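Researcher: Please translate sequence to structure tokens.
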Amino acid sequence: MSERKGVVTMHGNPLTLVGSAVKAGDQAPEVTLINNDLAPVRISDYKGKVLVISAVPSLDTPVCDLETRRFNSEAAGLGDQVVILTVSMDLPFAQKRWCGAAGVERVITLSDHREAAFGQAYGLLIKELRLLARCVLVLDREQKIRYVQLVKELSSEPDYAAVLAAVKKLV
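Model: Translation complete:
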């Protein structure tokens, strides 16, 4: 498995990402994640929709909380042809609790805690922490990756306007 050092940082300290980086134009790797009811969910389950995948380190951190709430509020204006997923290493129980407490109903939270398959397949698994790097991907209806925004500093939010512009080109 390939490793990329220093691609992302946490408070300025370089971290190592495991797996090959995905890029715009790639077919989205197929992986299975776990939903809040412990059922398996595949990326391909959303074929036919424009898919936003927001990978975050943990919903129980301030920036991930802000990011997921922001995407939840943006989802209302994107229509039913767009699905937004937030993927983290958090346990499904913690994700479900967080969604209930935060009032998040439009973003689907999925866990990669079992095998870190998403993190490895998308090149977002942080070796030192076994968490996911902050990254937003936009997939078209055929599951081709059309936009990738890897956020260099884990404690920074993504550029929401750029993500939304990428989504709007596809709907």
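Researcher: Any highlights?
Model: The radius of gyration is 15 Å.
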